[in-house]
Write a structure and sequence with these properties.
By secondary structure, the protein is mainly α. Helices cover 68% and strands 0% of the residues. The protein starts with 27 loop residues before the first helix and ends with a helix. The protein binds fe (ii) ion (2 copies). Residues 73, 132, 135, 162, 165 line the site of one fe (ii) ion.
Length: 274
């Protein structure tokens, strides 16, 4: 049995063992999913501006943590994007990002003032915990699914970062009733159905010169994006995701609720990508 390496915070692009890249181990569905993920991650600096606005009153230490968080998310995008460019020379991260940004602007990026779209700083913390639970599980699933050594390393490094991000936001979680937290969390899960995943998948996987023949269709690309993501997941990754969210709600991550929610989410995701 091999022991998984421990990846510490603060790694750089130079720490990745790029020379181990093995093109024969690249799997096309996973490549498509990685390209889309690269765009979403690389777009994070915009989100830092938004979070800093929401947390303007929280003090310099929180703002510094948010800056660091944004740098790490952008690096996730760069690392995944560089890997995708090695795996598919036709893919160009910067160009795909420009198209993605041109067509996708979530509501909260254009809002001004300190009000969060989720109503409050407290809500924002819970929403962040949900997102980081999702990314932590997703990159763990990619790490476990791929046989390509460089992607395995990058996904392992990112999964470790995402778990630290979850803890960063978890430690700031407010005192709220379980039901209030659940309400916010469910809202965030529903939000992830939005254009971001479908459109990032489209911009990442349809070349500009192919756009006319393959116009954007949200339903079609949402399904393709779900199918690509689901190809890496096993039931235990989804259970881990649910446990992290349930813990953030203040409930028992190993109790009946976590088991039921895990089974429900697994069925729902399977149905969505069927
Ligand atoms: Fe990330
Ligand atoms: Fe993260």
């Amino acid at each position: 049995m091999t022991v998984a390496p421990v990846y510490k915070q603060g790694w750089t692009m130079d720490d990745v063992h790029w020379s181990l890249f093995d093109p024969t181990k690249v799997e096309p569905t996973l490549l498509a999913a990685v390209k889309a993920a690269a765009l979403v991650e690389y777009n994070a600096p915009d989100y830092v501006i938004y979070l800093k606005r929401v947390f303007a009153a929280a003090g310099p230490q929180t703002l510094a943590s948010l800056e660091q968080w944004g740098r790490e998310e952008a690096q996730h995008g760069r690392a995944l994007g560089r890997w995708a460019e090695m795996a598919d020379p036709k893919f160009r991260l910067e160009e795909a990002l420009t198209r993605f940004r041109g067509g996708y602007t979530p509501e909260h990026f254009t809002e001004t003032g300190e009000s969060s779209v989720r109503g409050s700083r407290r809500g924002e913390m819970i929403a962040r915990c949900v997102v980081e639970s999702g990314t932590s599980s997703y990159y763990s699933a990619i790490r476990d699914a791929t046989e390509e050594p460089v992607l395995k390393e990058i996904a392992g490094r990112i999964a470790a970062d995402e778990y630290r991000h979850y803890k960063l936001f978890y430690d700031t979680l407010p005192e709220l009733s379980f039901w209030k937290k659940l309400w916010i969390a469910v809202g965030r899960v529903r939000e992830s159905d939005d254009d971001e995943l479908a459109y990032s998948y489209y911009c990442a996987n349809v070349l500009p010169e192919e756009e006319a023949a393959n116009p954007y269709n949200r339903k079609k690309y949402s399904k393709l994006a779900s199918q690509a993501s689901m190809s890496v997941y096993h039931r235990h990754h989804i259970q881990k995701l649910v446990q992290m969210v349930i813990k953030a709600m203040g409930a028992n991550p190993h109790g009946w609720m976590a088991n039921m929610a895990g089974a429900f989410l697994w069925r729902r995701l399977a149905a969505k990508s069927a």
